[in-house]
Specification:
The protein has about 375 residues and is of the alpha/beta class. Helices cover about 55% and strands about 10% of the residues. The protein contains twelve helices and seven strands. The protein has a seven-stranded mixed beta sheet with strand order 3-2-1-4-6-5-7. Helix 1 (about 20-30) runs parallel beside helix 2. The mean pLDDT is about 90. The structure holds guanosine-5'-diphosphate-alpha-D-mannose and manganese (II) ion. Manganese (II) ion binds near residues 98, 100 and 218. Manganese (II) ion binds near residues 96, 98, 100 and 213.
Length: about 375
């Protein structure tokens, strides 16, 4: 079969439970992109509501529509990256499925890239003059979003006003320069791209008004913000520490506090010896670490029901072996170089690395 057309623009739409938005969005794109040779690819992470099935049905009626159906994977950033990589168009864009972004801005962004060959990226910004957060954001989220924006701008040396935007268009050649450097975990692909481009990109902003979601519910939650903190630290480490490992360490640190509090409480009970209080503390900390990692670090692989309990047991085993690795390494170091602080620290690092890798491969193994 011969191709019927070659798109100049691929619009990538990441979806998770957005069935009711597919048709309305395609209808709006048809209107907004009349003058452009475009296509849309919905990157769906096997949504339980059957979004991918709906996209296939629409695609059979409309050759501009494609689906990329991913199984066993979750994540907004990774979905966008794979959508970009699946395209042959020289210009690529991302837009929310839920009609929150003003699709009529796409033509303006496209024109800006066509007019200026040096331009790499056009960002749909809620914060520049004329653009506004409209009524689409709750005031608490607006506050959090503003704080995260400020932090990202300072730490990642990003100069655009809305680096958290999920609405933007860029040149494929520019994307290819940084594709290998991007993190697939997380929500903030734009901030990650801007940071990866190290200020070399020419960027323009196009204001728009953030609208109310059409159908379905938001996938952003409290974990998204912590995950973003993980992205910042990961970037500051020059990419040495992946987001997941940063989150794992953050949870581990919280476990130290939990353990101390639990030991203190246990000691307050009559007749409890320190030895038993310490054991209680360790188990409480391992349990809260498991719960937090399950919700945050392995957000995309959260274990539920029976799996949750099986995971908890395997996590206890993993951590116990981690403690053995910790003590063993510290002892070995100490025997050649009797500096307790160095030996103990290296032991702790070994234990943390073991716990991370083993839990990744055993407790939360990808299926
Ligand atoms: N494939 C895939 N996998 N898509 C996902 C996933 C996922 O794990 N999580 C979310 N999506 C899709 C949603 O279905 C939606 O189309 C889009 O990504 C954005 O998710 P929303 O749930 O609509 O996020 P939001 O509207 O709360 O947040 C928006 O505004 C933020 C700025 O405050 C998004 O545009 C964010 O990217 C943006 O940072
Ligand atoms: Mn949205």
């Amino acid at each position: 079969m011969t191709r019927t057309f070659f798109p100049d623009l691929t619009v990538v739409v990441p979806t998770y439970n957005e069935r009711g938005n597919v048709r309305p969005l395609v209808a709006l794109l048809e209107k907004a992109l009349e003058a452009i040779n475009w296509e849309v690819v919905f990157v769906d992470d096997d949504s339980p509501d059957g979004t991918a099935r709906e996209v296939r049905a629409v695609a059979r009626e409309n050759p501009r529509v494609r689906v990329l159906h991913r199984i066993g994977r979750r994540g907004l950033s990774g979905a966008c990256i794979e959508g970009f990589l699946s395209s042959i168009a020289p210009i690529i864009a991302v837009i929310d499925a839920d009609l929150q972004h003003d699709e009529t801005r796409l033509a303006v962004m496209f024109q800006a890239l066509a007019d200026d060959p040096d331009l790499d990226l056009v960002v749909g910004s809620r914060n520049v003059e004329d653009g506004s957060a409209g009524t689409g954001l709750s005031s608490l989220r607006k506050w959090g979003s503003d704080r995260a924006n400020g932090l990202a701008r300072r730490l990642l040396k990003i100069t655009v006003s809305d680096p958290m935007s999920g609405f933007f268009m860029l040149r494929r050649s520019s994307f290819n320069e940084i594709a290998l450097d991007l993190q697939k975990q997380g929500f903030k692909i734009l901030a990650d791209m801007l940071s990866a481009s190290r200020g070399r990109w020419k960027v323009r902003e196009v204001p728009y008004t953030f609208r109310e979601r059409h159908s379905g519910t938001s996938k952003m939650d409290s974990t998204t913000t912590v995950e973003f903190l993980g992205l910042l630290i990961s970037r500051l480490s020059g990419g040495l520490l992946p987001i997941r490992f940063v989150l794992f360490l953050m949870v581990g640190l919280s476990g130290v506090v939990v353990q101390l509090a639990a030991v203190r409480l246990a000691l307050a009970l009559p007749g409890v010896a320190f030895f038993w209080a310490q054991i209680v503390g360790v188990f409480v900390a391992m349990t809260t670490n498991f719960i937090l990692n399950n919700k945050l670090t392995y957000h995309d692989r959260t274990l539920r029901g029976r799996e949750f309990f099986r995971g908890l047991l395997s996590f206890y085993v993993v951590c116990s072996l981690g403690a053995v690795a910790n003590v063993g390494t510290a002892q070995a170091i100490f025997s050649v170089w009797p500096n307790w602080a160095v030996a103990s620290l290296v032991g702790a690092v070994m234990g943390a690395l073991w716990n991370f890798w083993a839990s990744l491969l055993v407790t939360w193994r990808a299926r």
